[in-house]
Write a structure and sequence with these properties.
The chain is mainly alpha-helical. 71% of the residues lie in helices and 1% in strands. The protein contains 22 helices and 2 strands. Strands 1-2 form a two-stranded antiparallel sheet. Helix 4 packs antiparallel against helix 6 (158-167), helix 4 (95-130) runs antiparallel to helix 7 and helix 9 packs across helix 20.
Length: 485
């Protein structure tokens, strides 16, 4: 009797955590409310960017043309109209599709992770050996060399194109992993993490990697939300209090990775700032044309401050964008908040740079070659003629952010850009609904990618970085025979 009572006590103690999770109070919200929250999540970055743009702590941006604002906001209006358009596409979000996706999750996470790791190896070999850069050239210097080579006519190699295509599989691997986290084995998670380290190491050494790494993290967070919704919702309602440890685990992992990426980005900003200050000091001593322009825009007195080199780097960088620096903080304050100052420019430059393009008369549109640069490279290889879009001659601001609506405008013009916005909204809505239902359809896996592209749209376009993911998502739709449990 005592043994039975003791055993009962042990069982009760062991099941208390489970009972505490299952007896929590419920708080339900509908799928419609979830869609409204998703729209809110897309609007937050836009409101943040617009708010920062009118902050004058680090300078004042020139005014924007009314027609530019009209097109910019019109693009987002078209997207949201498409999102709420009462159209229902045929979906595979039934039980069979959900079960099929669950069984194949480990296969695809491992396969895509291996593809990304191979791609990182190929790209490392391409940069270090084929192109002869080795491992000693600093990333800032390397990026300058690569951009100069591209301007001189270098169209890349088949090895580089294949490597980049393979590397993009990492984003899809993370999305599939987060959507099917409950079904993942330790082997799949381990292979995914090792592959991620390999990809990040290559990106950090040879390409910078800020955009791609940040995009993967943001897409993965959104996919984790999809996993939580599909795991605990019933009858198109979600109990937002039904959180389990398995829902928290991927979030914790992604947060740790985010800290690492943020630290890396800050290090890149500071390193580039120090090098920029040194380069400007040499130019100023030589009294070249660029330094004269900066002195005229900033003022000799502020540039004579040798105690705050990062502030000097910021001021000369900001002068390139015709920012009025009379309202900017003093050099000491800019030096202390250099990271925030550079983030302010990076986050807010897009709309002004797009305005310069939108006001350009007789602009030659790229017909897809601006964001889908590989099209021009492939045509150049096939024809023997440079078929790439000439950014330097066609656009007034080579190498700057021009927002997502701006980039689509450069490619296709205003009318087609608005049509594409509405179509993107329709696809996003269907994808989110299927993702919330736990399906593994093409649009369900694409939904986190679309979320990232639209959310970062007020700053820049990530289409050139992420469009190859569509190839890998399409590949996951191929049925793989697996043994039934």
């Amino acid at each position: 009797m005592i043994m039975v009572s003791t055993w009962s006590a042990i069982v009760l103690a062991a099941t208390l955590p489970y009972q505490s999770w299952t007896t929590m109070p419920a708080l339900y919200i509908s799928y419609r409310s979830l869609m409204v929250l998703t729209v809110g999540a897309l609007l937050v970055p836009m409101l943040l960017v617009l708010g920062l743009r009118y902050s004058t702590a680090y300078g004042t941006w020139p005014p924007i043309g009314v027609d530019t604002w009209a097109f910019f906001f019109g693009w987002y209006v078209a997207f949201f109209l498409g999102l709420f358009f009462p159209l229902r596409l045929r979906s595979r979000a039934g039980p069979a599709a959900i079960e099929e996706g669950a069984r194949q999750a480990n296969f695809w996470v491992i396969s895509l992770s291996c593809a990304a790791a191979i791609g990182a190896g190929l790209m490392t070999y391409n940069f270090a050996v084929i192109r002869g850069f080795g491992f000693d050239v600093p990333i800032t210097e390397l990026r300058t060399i690569v951009m100069n080579e591209a301007s001189a006519g270098y169209v890349g190699s088949w090895l580089g194109g294949l490597g980049r295509l393979l590397v993009s599989a990492a984003a899809v691997a993370w999305i599939v992993a987060c959507l099917k986290w409950r079904d993942l084995s330790w082997l799949a998670v381990s292979v995914l993490l090792v592959s991620t380290i390999a990809v990040f190491a290559y990106q950090a050494k040879f390409e910078g990697g800020r955009f791609f790494s940040s995009a993967i993290l943001l897409a993965s967070f959104f996919a984790t939300v999809g996993f939580f919704v599909s795991d605990v919702s019933r009858k198109r309602r979600l109990d937002i209090l039904a959180v389990r440890p398995t829902h928290i685990t991927p979030v914790v992992l992604l947060l740790l990775m985010s800290v690492g990426v943020a630290s890396y980005n800050e290090m890149v900003f500071v390193s580039r700032g120090a090098q920029s200050a040194q380069k400007f000091a040499v130019q100023k001593a030589a009294d070249d044309l660029f330094s004269k322009k900066v002195v005229q825009a900033v003022g000799q007195e502020r540039l004579a401050d040798n105690q705050n080199p990062l502030a000097i780097a910021y001021l000369q960088y900001a002068s390139n964008f015709d920012i009025d620096l009379s309202s900017a903080r003093d050099n000491k304050e800019i030096e202390a908040t250099y990271g925030r100052a550079m983030a302010w420019i990076y986050l807010t430059q897009g709309i002004n740079e797009f305005d310069r393009i939108f006001q350009t008369e007789n602009l030659k549109h790229a017909v897809g070659r601006y964001q889908f640069t590989q099209i021009g490279q492939i045509l150049s290889k096939l024809t023997g003629t440079d078929m790439r879009y000439d950014v330097a001659n066609n656009l007034p601001n080579n190498g700057t952010y021009v927002t997502l609506p701006g980039a689509i405008y450069v490619d296709f013009g205003a009318a087609l850009a608005l049509v594409l916005a509405a179509l993107a909204g329709i696809c996003f809505r269907v994808g989110v609904e299927e993702m919330f239902a736990g399906a593994s359809t093409f649009l369900a896996i694409l939904a986190p990618i679309l979320f990232v592209v639209v959310a970062t749209g007020p700053v820049t376009t990530l289409v050139p970085n992420l469009w190859p993911c569509a190839f890998w998502i399409a590949l996951t739709q191929i049925p793989i025979r697996t043994k039934s449990p």
